[in-house]
């Protein structure tokens, strides 16, 4: 491997890390701004940015725990699907019917567990920002709050995610870094220059300035929607306002 390839790889790696750190800080910063505005206050950018920076490690720890839990759940589901496949093969044989049953059961279980997990995980960010919970407390709060509205939560966030991912994929295509996703081996071999990766990260951050607020607003929307549906939060807030 040449020195140029190593340098390009390091430049691209640093660009990705910096972009990731900025995004982790940006999410609680934007949500803090929105939460202050919703409560009738005047959001101050510097205060929100400081808050987002303080929440960095809490956010990273929460995402790590959520990812670890999701991977564990999927491993359990995978074992269950293998057991179903073995039972179907034992009773139905190794024919087409057994294969269809395995695919249907596997898809249904993965979809159900995925919706259950993603709905709870998606509400952990508002728990950190709005209720000032720790990462573990916020994850517990998210799963408890998501009860009764998991499919609705996932549907709203999936549509918002589509609105974000389309321009991001367009940036990958324009900068020629789409190969990082379609051919990781070529990217590792130096097929994508560090300059292109830096350009892609800068353009992605520029687009994120418009798309990320929408995504963060959707997180806050489903959070308050669930609180209103399950805890009558709107009535509680109105009573507090009357008392004050």
Describe this structure in words.
With 244 residues, the protein is mainly α. It is globular and about 65 Å long. The protein is built from eleven helices and no strands. The N and C termini lie far apart (68 Å). Helix content is 88%, strand content 0%. The relative contact order is 0.12.
Give me the secondary-structure topology.
Layout: H1 3-38, H2 45-54, H3 56-92, H4 96-122, H5 124-129, H6 135-145, H7 150-175, H8 179-182, H9 184-191, H10 194-231, H11 233-243
Helix pairs in contact: 1-2, 1-10, 3-4, 3-6, 4-6, 4-7, 7-10, 10-11
Key features of this structure:
single chain; 244 residues; mainly alpha; 88% helix
How do you describe this structure in short?
The chain is built from eleven helices and no strands. The chain has helices spanning 3-38, 45-54, 56-92, 96-122, 124-129, 135-145, 150-175, 179-182, 184-191, 194-231, 233-243.
């Amino acid at each position: 491997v040449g020195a140029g390839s190593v340098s390009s790889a390091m430049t691209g790696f640093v660009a990705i890390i910096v972009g990731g750190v900025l995004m982790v800080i940006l999410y609680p910063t934007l949500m803090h701004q929105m939460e202050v505005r919703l409560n009738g206050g005047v959001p101050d950018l510097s205060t929100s940015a400081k808050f987002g920076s303080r929440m960095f490690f809490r956010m990273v720890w929460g995402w790590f725990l959520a990812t670890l839990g999701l991977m564990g759940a999927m491993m359990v589901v995978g074992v269950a699907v293998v057991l179903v496949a073995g039972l179907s093969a034992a009773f139905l044989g190794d024919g087409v019917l057994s294969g269809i049953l395995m695919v249907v059961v596997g898809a249904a279980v993965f979809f159900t567990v995925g919706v259950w997990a993603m709905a709870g995980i998606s509400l952990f960010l508002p728990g950190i920002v709005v209720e000032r919970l720790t990462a573990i407390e916020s994850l517990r709060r998210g799963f408890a709050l998501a009860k009764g509205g998991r499919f609705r939560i996932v549907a709203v966030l999936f549509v918002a995610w589509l609105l974000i991912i389309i321009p991001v994929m367009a940036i990958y295509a324009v900068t020629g870094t789409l190969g990082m996703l379609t051919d990781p081996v070529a990217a590792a071999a130096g097929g994508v220059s560090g300059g292109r990766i830096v350009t892609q990260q800068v353009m992605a951050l520029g687009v994120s300035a418009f798309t990320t607020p929408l995504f963060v607003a959707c997180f806050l929307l489903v959070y308050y929607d669930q609180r209103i549906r399950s805890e009558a939060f709107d009535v509680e807030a109105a009573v507090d306002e009357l008392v004050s």
